[in-house]
Amino acid sequence: MKYLSICSINFVLLFCTSISLMILSFYFILNEIVYLLEWEVVSLNSLTIVMTFLFDWMSLMFMSFVLLISSLVIYYSKEYMAGDININRFIMLVLMFVMSMMLLIISPNLISILLGWDGLGLISYCLVIYFNNVKSYNAGMLTALMNRVGDVALLMAIAWMLNYGSWNYIFYLEVMKNDSKMMLIGGLVMLAAMTKSAQIPFSSWLPAAMAAPTPVSALVHSSTLVTAGVYLLIRFNLLLVNTWMSQLLLLLAGLTMFMSGLGANFEFDLKKIIALSTLSQLGLMMMILSMGFYKLAFFHLLTHALFKALLFMCAGAIIHNMNNSQDLRLMGSLSIYMPLTSSCFNVANLALCGMPFLAGFYSKDLILEIASLSMLNLFIYFLFFFSTGLTVCYSLRLVYYSMTGDLNCSALNVLNDESWIMLKGMLGLTMMSIIGGSLLSWMIFLTPHMICLPYYLKFMTLFVCVIGGLTGYFMSKISLFFINKSLNNYYLSMFVGSMWFMPYISTYGLVNYSLKLGYLVVKNFDQGWSEFLGSQNLYTQLVRYSQFNYVIQNNNLKIYFLIFVLWILILFFLILL
């Protein structure tokens, strides 16, 4: 009961702080207020160490969403992690994770950003390996090492910021945006953001991080770790506008969105499908951000956070009831046995698809209409809309497998909706997934967008969603018989289902060849000719000489007499000669 009360206290504190920050962000946006606070930590002679904090509508609104989701996730964990004897440690890790994200959000300074950035990386490693098994350790190491690439890029950006005499990047973005040094800093920040937000070629760690407990996945994939990269680029958006970097980011983000949407249609792991959908939405955010619409990217970041956290929480409740099984093929008829959880799950799925008047509709529809209005080439336009169709496709496939048909799991499974603490957390987010999009669209865009398009472009989003949904339905109907059993499609499903062989390149490829090289080095050098000619041979010779010496010393009287006899014989032969 002691641990459960800790969960409750943290929930109340975080929830109240979240509501306060939300009201404050509305006040800031209406009055266009920005506060830049400087706190002098140490002052020694002429040396001063100053912490700088930036409070504007964007940082306050993002903080309120992070705190709202983390409060509901902690409340949800009260029942989800109830069987864990170390639940206290788990809650503390989650709180440290959230605090690291807070530090990153309010920092206009690269040094304090690095503190929050590294805090996220370190604590995410601790949370991914929480269940202490080989799969978790491998996933944790992959997550940590791939994020280290971004950390190094951020460190190099800090080193280059020394050219300006201060690390407060916010003062230099506008005036120095055409400077070559600032362009280099922008490139390094873009690299860091791509690793944290898992864009191609750094995508393989995101599905691997599913080894973490489900409440952690809900937090990571909605508003903390993976969104840190997008948020950082939103702050640095001035450096990307009309440069080759923005064009490169647009291409890579589009390919990420396409690759993850395609991969999710070949996946049967419930959590991995939702993880790939996160990757797809991150690609969408990065695409619209690289086109210069940073407010739209931020808007979608917030709406996505709501329904993605809800999706993971519903998935966690389903996995709990399915006796810890995550395989879609073992599910079915969940809408009959778990009606309330299924309702929340379907609301989140429809919001993800962009169903009109749910949270995801307001941001996704606006992004796609802006894309139709912009000067894009055909390939990027295709990536935008085809990937949106794929989103509806795998979402409908997910619903088809889990909610309809026959229950395929063990007859001993008891499926029910009686986990009231988890349900309360899910219902809170369900409410936000319904009203959050309209609320945010009124607050962020004080003047409504008027987007005038021809009929065929105006209805393009709806058309793509309907076609994607129908494809997902028919693919689900025939997939077990044709697609997955067909030998002709084996290599296609291998390629698409393994994220275009990216895990093989980033994990198996690196590990396999480095281990083989290590084996050859050990065999030929450490235990090969260098060992024979070096220390091992020296040791063998010394042993041999010492044995010889030992024989001589043990038999010295015999040897003395033998030499005496030999000496007499030699003298005798000499006399005869």
Q: Can you characterise this structure?
A:
The protein is about 75% helix and about 5% strand. The chain has about 575 residues and is mainly α. It has 2 domains: about 135-500, no CATH class; about 530-575, no CATH class. The chain has a two-stranded antiparallel ribbon. Strand 1 and strand 2 form a beta hairpin. Helix 13 (about 295-320) runs antiparallel to helix 15 (about 340-355). Mean pLDDT is about 85; it is low at about 485-490.
Shape: elongated
Distance between the termini: 111 Å
Read across the widest sheet, the strand sequence of neighbours is 1-2
Largest sheet: 2 strands, antiparallel
Regions with pLDDT < 50 over 5+ consecutive residues? 484-488
